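Hey, quick one: can you model this chain's 3D structure?
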Amino acid sequence: MKIVSKHPLLVGTALLTIMSAGIYGCSDFLANNASPQGTVDSNTLSNAAGVEGTLVGAYRALDCTSALSPNWGCAASNWVFGGVAGDDAYKGSNATDQPPINDIEGRHWGTADAESYLNTKWRISYEGVVRANAAINLFKSVYAANPTAFSVATAHAIEGEALFLRAHYHFEAWRMWGNIPYYRETETDFRKPGETSAAVATDIIKDLDSAIKLLPLVPRNKGRAGQWTAKAYKGRVQVYAASTTPALWAAAVTTLTDVVNNGPYKLETSFDRVWTGFADEANGLETIWAFQASANDGEPNGANANFGERLNFPYSGSHFGCCGFNQPSQSLVNFFKVDPTTGLPTAMTNPTTWNASDVEFKSTDVTTPVDPRLDWTVGRDGVPFKDWGPVNVGTGGSASWVRDIGNGGPYVPKKNAHEKASGAESTTGWQPTQLNSVNIHLYRYADVLLMLAEAMVETGNLTGAQTIVNQIRTRAAAAAQGPGTTRANIAVALSDTSIHWAKYQVGQYLVPWTDPVYAREAVRSERRLELAMEGQRFFDLRRYGLAYAKSVLDAYIASEGTAARRLYKAQAEPFIARHMLYAIPGIQIELSKTGGQQTLTQNPGW
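Sure thing. Here's the predicted structure for all 606 residues.
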């Protein structure tokens, strides 16, 4: 079932589309109705089950949907816009596959190719907004007609979840484009001008505050939003907004401290439990907000699995068979190297030389100590890949785990991959070996902690920030990649004698932090180590400010755009002011016209 709208910016405004995409997320909905029908209309949905099903449809827009997936600009993880656009990853694969990503990577965002991906992101973001608003409207209609249809608690939870989702989808658009339109459930004209970035932030926080008042402390089900989800998310928005409104740093400290001190979240005991396909480890205490990927649930094409990540697996020489995208950069691998004396990142102890090596870092190099998070994040030649055996890079090509070393380098992504023993792999769909039920973290507790540390630095509490960073580093030292011959030895102690492919070391910041410049950089470094390849890096760099982002990304292009690394990177545009916001898709500006006048305004420089 596919609905086509004359307004692609808001494809799927009909409830019919909401249910067509969400039907396998609530697979017994039609069967449980008194009179199952071949189509879903407002009459069919005007009951409690219809409201719940419509809300499920709003959750479903978190990742690619069959109706809105012409490319991978819709991925929940933002691997294109948050990873490849920054310094974490290359597009990977080869130069001719998914060429629009080449332009995103090279910061050529005004091209037609780049727009194809940007428009997909715009559409999925506002599809989510529309679905959330449709859920609110349907709920209000049903509740007004029949107040006994829901308990008071359920009624509050439904409205709170929809408001939270609306805030999330606007946040996704806001951190891409800044000056965006904000749509509420009462809107009737979708040709609406964008608000200022500051006004959007205020509106997101307003929705989150409303959601906090309505949501239960404990979510109604796994994957649903609860009160603490919304509180944590509010702190996130405050940190983002504080980059241009410094007064919000103190507000962020208050919000995030409450989440840390009183909320239900904790760090997982070891890093391997964060990104995993094992069902008994999914939705652990670290999970705040994640796309709940689902495999083998009756959807015939595996579309409810990690569809947005399906390109990001090792190539044909591996079990996964395809497709070799989102390859970790040499810069990222070098960033995980540590000082042998202190165990601190060499990016902190040797800031001018940490990225000097152009040499592929293989399992045979066991003299250079590295943070163990390297091998939970990056697949390296000769190192066990969870429990799938060692990575085989070779020279690239069909027999290798890497498609084209010359284009994408010798490393492969790892966090999104499932364990062989987990049973998370799909059995249906095109190339099912690259589809799984690994939940895609959109926001996790380590991120909360590091945002709190960042806010503490900006408000003068360097001791508190140092304590948090050391807490993160303590967890990083809990386990390293093991041989993976059984589930029990996928993760082992850093000192385990079975490890022969790396020298793992993680040190603590022992000298008290007194310099805010040093403290700020230490927190930012820890964010890169902890959240690498999770689609956060480029957004972080931009909110750190133009001067900082430019210094990092221009240095990255200078180091990567060489014959020793990825020569094509030299063609990237130098980072300038216009890159602080993505280009609004031209088609959306055209569609915003009323009376021949556009209501959407293109971002500066585009």
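One thing worth noting: Residues 1-37 have pLDDT under 50 and may be disordered.
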